[in-house]
Amino acid sequence: MEDAVILLSGGMDSGVLLAWACSRFRTVEGLYFEYGSRHQEKECAMARRLAQHYEISLTKISLPFVSDLFASSLLKTGPEVPEGPYADDNMSSTVVPFRNGIMLSIAVGFAENNGIEHVLIASHSGDHPIYPDCRPSFTTAMSEAAAKGTAGRVCVAAPFNSMSKKEIAEIGRKLSFDFSMTWSCYKGLTLHCGRCATCLERKSALGHDMGLDPTEYMQ
Amino acid sequence: MEDAVILLSGGMDSGVLLAWACSRFRTVEGLYFEYGSRHQEKECAMARRLAQHYEISLTKISLPFVSDLFASSLLKTGPEVPEGPYADDNMSSTVVPFRNGIMLSIAVGFAENNGIEHVLIASHSGDHPIYPDCRPSFTTAMSEAAAKGTAGRVCVAAPFNSMSKKEIAEIGRKLSFDFSMTWSCYKGLTLHCGRCATCLERKSALGHDMGLDPTEYMQ
């Protein structure tokens, strides 16, 4: 069996990925990236809770240059996150340029430094239209770059890349994953707002209408 | 004409790349990465001097996690840099895992954020045996990842990748490049030590034996 490091954001997708990876790899480590997102305190607390629950080591990596240099409504330094459903024209302001490329590259360096063979990211098909660095063609190219740049010692994979968020939720349920240990809302308030694009997406994936969603929402 | 951002380390290769790029692109910007290398104060001072001379904007990006998490003799936190010639067995301790992958990814995000089409790096053939993330196969894969992850808005290129350091020196001379504005030595003392692997490489590339090298060495 080999080892893996996963990008653990504290969201439901990477939470389920952690549960999934723990059953498949000898050891799993988590990396949490602090890049100035509005919801980072919430996210980081959830990532810590997940790491504790699954008894894995979690390393926090700060990237102060992201909010200093990049513009995005996802960042504390950016404009407001729009409300309403996830769609190209609505959510394009939440793009943080090449975010996954940056986080994956750092994770590849971390993996190579620690003799870990696999870097895992929880990209899924719902993210493809808006975020180019969530698409399978990007992950494939990035995996090739990781292999070439580490002389074959590290590879990158996105096991959920062809799945919808609903399918990830199903995998989580099969693994008895506790979704209340995760955070989605872009607003970073005390509770999930229940109205922003990512809350609406979470409600839909977790079957909120059918009473299957354990999340407490403001509305 | 299009715009470019270059990884400017303050070394002779990226210095010549800057001179070369200034004649080919509408605007050129520089990025200097501070990742805890032994010689970073010297390097950064040289990068600033180059930026001033070529009248370009220079942005310094700090990556504190590199020396916190990665082991390398290139870092202040690592073991001594070995002396003697550049060779696999001698210089492998100077590898910073996936360093170029990390710096290029951040540069790609910076370029996308600022509407810059090209990211340039000064990798050359002399680095290939020791550093996998300097090889053409890596740069090609990284360029593909950049294109996919930015929906075709940014590409990565290493114009000197098939050249030797000596050939880069020749290009520099043709462009009237002042090599005394650059720093190579891994030791980070007041003057170039003249004995470490990168000093020996610099002497050879600049024709030290033939009196063509303007560098002042300790020995």
Report on the architecture of this protein.
Two copies of one chain form a homodimer. With 219 residues, chain A is an alpha/beta fold. The first copy, chain A, has a single domain (3-210), classed as HUPs (Rossmann fold, 3-Layer(aba) Sandwich). Chain A has eight helices and five strands. A five-stranded parallel sheet of chain A has the order 3-2-1-4-5, with helices on both faces. In chain A, helix 6 (136-149) links the parallel strand 4 and strand 5. In chain A, helix 1 crosses helix 7 (165-174) and helix 7 (165-174) packs across helix 8 (197-206). The mean pLDDT of chain A is 91.
What value does the average pLDDT of chain A take? 91
Tell me the count of domains of chain A.
1
Report the span from N to C terminus of chain A: 45 Å
Q: What strand line-up does the widest sheet of chain A have?
A: 3-2-1-4-5
CATH superfamily of chain A: HUPs
| CATH architectural grouping of chain A | 3-Layer(aba) Sandwich
Structural category of chain A is alpha/beta
State the CATH class of chain A.
Alpha Beta
Spans of chain A of at least 5 consecutive residues whose pLDDT stays below 50 are: none
Biggest pleated sheet of chain A = 5 strands, parallel
Largest interface: A-B, 41 and 41 residues
Approximately how much helix is present in the residues of chain A? 25-40%
Strand content of chain A: 5-15%
* CATH structural fold name of chain A: Rossmann fold
DSSP summary: helix tally of chain A = 8
Name the overall outline of chain A.
Answer: globular
Identify the quaternary structure here: homodimer
Q: H/E element string of chain A?
A: EHEHEHHHEHEHH
Number of strands of chain A: 5
Radius of gyration of CA atoms of chain A, rounded to a whole number: 16 Å
